[in-house]
């Protein structure tokens, strides 16, 4: 008897190990094998085994589910809002944040964009000590900026620096849509202007990736004046005979469109980006009708003669590098 | 004057009886010849421009023109320019540069027109180019905000050596209604927004965005238009003389420094 009991425990133990490996699917298999080959005549033994199996099984199941939930919670998956495909984030990032299924270009943080464009280890930031001002003393503004800074670990809506792009030295500015929709306030205008001045000083081409909802409302009229400041700086760049490339990404609107973004010697855009002065909702309210599909898209702007070329993300770095090379005397 | 709130000034600035660009032009200058068209697409009636003389001196005048009644407003698109308006303005400024004429602009707009055609014809590009070219135009530029100066639509003809506002004019990033609906999620809080936006002449002077304020009679410019126009003329004469006496390089350097320091 004691031997039999020992044997049963052994069987249960083996089953446990097996179950851990194959998790849930085993359930049906086990119930098919309800009659244990080692003890077919013993009813009690059979029940004992099934009980144990169930318990083990339930445990496994809940654990698996939790793991998945945890994965979801820390955001390892994203849904492409164009083709509705669920994509594993790592795969998306490996694919330059372009949907592997439908080619939709996801929005990029400045950090990720710089990684894609600048040669590894060459980016030296400039203007990082220029920080957000609060000229209107607008209630809660600086607090909001502070919490955003901690949350997304970015200190303003643009990052500028000197870098190499396939070995070509250039000043690169990259806006960040995660920071108050890439809106342009005093700090953004100043950083861009300082970057342009650096380009003039070092006789380098200037490349800017735009993403912006427009001027920063919380800084009022001071934001508006950044349009003048940046545009005047671009004119200095023109006078110095230096190449200026702007890349319009989704979305580029408002005061940024109505200043430096539209002033490039060469204006590139990513596919299907929203680009315009007035936002689609404002236009719809004005004309009291719905806008046609694709209105204000990169393709629309190309057709109407406002951009030079639509470039996919995978070709962006080499295209910019090529353009810079063509402008080296 | 009694305590005038920012919202009172918004109302004053938008008043239909308030003198418009055309009236200032007629009152201050002689021999105004209006010139039309952007040579690309059409003629935008929301912006008027041409050549005139100021005490005998040829100048180029550009103004955003609102209507005084519904009919005029429809004709003038409520003073909301399309891209061809800004391109016409820029064409006239370039013409002024060629013939060494000072440029005077009158700003009075609720903003650039947010319509489909405007987008198709590159509203953003038109504004951007105008701003950029004004920053380096080789003749003196004086900009006067006479009513409502709203957003990029105002700035597009608002970059100059001297930017001045009438006492009851406003100049802002967008309308108080728009500001309230974006930041307070409630457009009915426009009054509150107006107080916080710093859009009055006094606020802008303190922020170093504008250079001077031209006084208005109590109740607004329409109460004694002749006097206001006379003061504007006096201001123009005094400053153009000063600016004309400067070397080109010095003029441009000063203008750039002024723009460069916005927000500092």
Task: Describe the model.
Chain A has helices at 2-22, 26-32, 43-73, 89-94, 110-117, 141-152, 186-202, 220-239, 254-257, 280-287, 298-303, 313-326; strands at 77-79, 86-88, 124-126, 158-165, 168-175, 206-212, 244-252, 266-269, 309-310. Chain A is built from twelve helices and nine strands. Chain A is α/β, with parallel strands linked by helices and 329 residues long. The longest helix of chain A has 31 residues, at 43-73. Chain A is globular. Helices cover 44% and strands 19% of the residues of chain B. In chain B, strands 1, 2, 3, 4, 5, 6, 7 and 8 form an eight-stranded mixed β-sheet that branches.
Walk me through the topology.
The complex is a heterodimer of chains A (329) and B (264).
Chain A: H1 2-22, H2 26-32, H3 43-73, E1 77-79, E2 86-88, H4 89-94, H5 110-117, E3 124-126, H6 141-152, E4 158-165, E5 168-175, H7 186-202, E6 206-212, H8 220-239, E7 244-252, H9 254-257, E8 266-269, H10 280-287, H11 298-303, E9 309-310, H12 313-326
Parallel strand pairs in A: 5-6, 6-7, 7-8, 8-9
Antiparallel strand pairs in A: 1-2, 3-4, 4-5
Helix pairs in contact in A: 1-3, 2-3, 7-8
Chain B: H1 6-14, H2 21-28, E1 30-34, E2 47-54, E3 57-64, H3 70-75, H4 83-98, E4 103-109, H5 116-120, H6 123-135, E5 141-150, H7 151-155, E6 162-166, E7 170-172, H8 176-183, H9 190-196, H10 201-206, E8 212-214, H11 225-244, H12 248-260
Parallel strand pairs in B: 3-4, 4-5, 5-6, 5-7, 6-8
Antiparallel strand pairs in B: 1-2, 2-3
Helix pairs in contact in B: 4-6, 8-9
